[in-house]
Write a structure and sequence with these properties.
single chain; about 350 residues; alpha/beta; five-stranded parallel beta sheet; 10 strands; binds 6-O-phosphono-alpha-D-glucopyranose
């Protein structure tokens, strides 16, 4: 049928969509570039971002995880305070809003009911809303004041992959263009860094056997698996754990390294797989300290670090990229590990049980 044709030679949409990520990065660079070769966003969007005193990001699932990374970008580059909220909680736990709030809805499908419920509330109050979505003309796009598109192409697999990295890239562009127009000097050219990212993604997508090995060594029989990281790595750990639980049904959780000692370390047993991300220089030694603590309790560690920060104990070293943008590449091994874990456990990779691609009920 038609869907078989679209999948081409790939056994699963998820694998195809993981592999499309370098191409999507290049499409995004193109789509948000002006004739002078500079990154650009629509002027009305730039104005509304510059005028607001606080941004509220609202999203669900993987899109929420992209929002957590986006907060870091917007605060560190554009110096605008950001809150990130799970849509389903936001409606009845609405925080005290600032004087001039701007709402950003992140949604691959643009149809998620929980996010839409918040958008309706926000519009009733007369606030401005921007939707970041992959689907032009989707409900969230039509009902918001502004839209930024992901240009990721249709995402079919239930587990979101290329939409996540596309969301992060678009949020980086939003933050970067805003920063520049506020006269803030960032000391790097995002457009150039995103090009480096696209190449690094390609390198990672070419190392599939390595992730298949990691998945088959660490995950075929395990009941659970933990992902630990600090700072921006922690947000990627949340996404890595979500990917693994969605498609392999392994109980997986992402934790902040520093929180281990406050509870989670009690769960570590002989052989418990712990995947640690170490891409940030300022927390490199503290996250490695956490790995030592879990190993002392019997954990089976897998450290994924970044070139320049690596040590002999690392299982995989990512190519060096701009430190702020590491989520764009550190998530790829986690996506592939989840993919192979699902495959080896005989699960339905593209259509995991109990889940839907887009949840249109609250
Ligand atoms: C569902 C999907 C997830 C997705 C979430 C939010 O739960 O299974 O993959 O992250 O919805 O979807 P959205 O389209 O709003 O990004």
């Amino acid at each position: 049928d038609a869907s078989d044709i679209e999948k081409g030679t790939y056994p699963h949409y998820m694998l195809k969509e993981i592999d499309e990520q370098p191409l999507v990065m290049r499409k995004i660079i193109q789509a948000y570039q002006n004739e002078k070769g500079e990154l650009e966003i629509a002027e009305d969007i730039l104005n509304v971002v510059k005028e607001c005193d606080r941004i509220y990001i609202v999203a669900c699932g993987t899109s929420y995880h992209a929002g957590l990374v986006g907060k870091q970008f917007i605060e560190s580059m554009a110096k605008i305070p950001v809150e990130v909220h799970v849509a389903s909680e936001f409606s009845y736990n609405m925080p005290l809003l600032s004087e001039k709030p701007l709402f950003i809805f992140i949604s691959q499908s643009g149809e998620t009911a929980d996010s839409r419920a918040v958008l309706v509330q926000v519009k009733e109050k007369g606030y401005k809303a921007l939707t970041i979505t992959n689907v032009p003309g989707s409900t969230l796009s039509r009902e918001a004041d502004f839209t930024m598109l992901l240009h990721a192409g249709p995402e079919i697999a239930v587990a979101s992959t290329k939409a996540y990295t596309a969301q992060i890239a678009v949020l980086a562009i939003l933050a970067n263009v805003t920063a520049k127009s506020r006269g803030l000097n960032l000391g790097f050219e995002l457009i150039h860094e995103l090009g480096i990212i696209a190449n690094a993604m390609e390198t990672l997508c070419d190392s599939k056997e390595e992730y298949e090995k990691i998945a088959s060594e660490f995950l075929p029989f395990t009941r659970n698996c933990f992902f630990i990281g600090r700072s921006i790595d922690y947000f990627v750990c949340l996404e890595g754990a979500l990917k693994l639980k969605e498609i392999s049904y392994i109980q997986a959780e992402g934790f902040a390294g520093g929180e281990l000692k406050h509870g989670t370390i009690a769960l570590i047993e002989d052989g418990t797989p712990v995947i640690a991300l170490a891409t940030q220089e300022n927390v490199n030694w503290s996250i490695r300290g956490n790995v030592k603590e879990v190993v002392a309790r019997g954990a089976n560690p897998c450290i994924i670090s970044m070139a320049g920060l690596e040590t002999d104990e690392d299982r995989f070293v990512l190519p060096a990229v701009n430190e702020l943008l590491t989520p764009l590449i550190s998530v790829i091994p986690l996506q592939l590990i989840a993919y192979y874990a699902s495959l080896h456990r005989g699960c339905d990779v593209d259509k995991p049980r109990n889940l839907a691609k887009s949840v249109t009920v609250e």
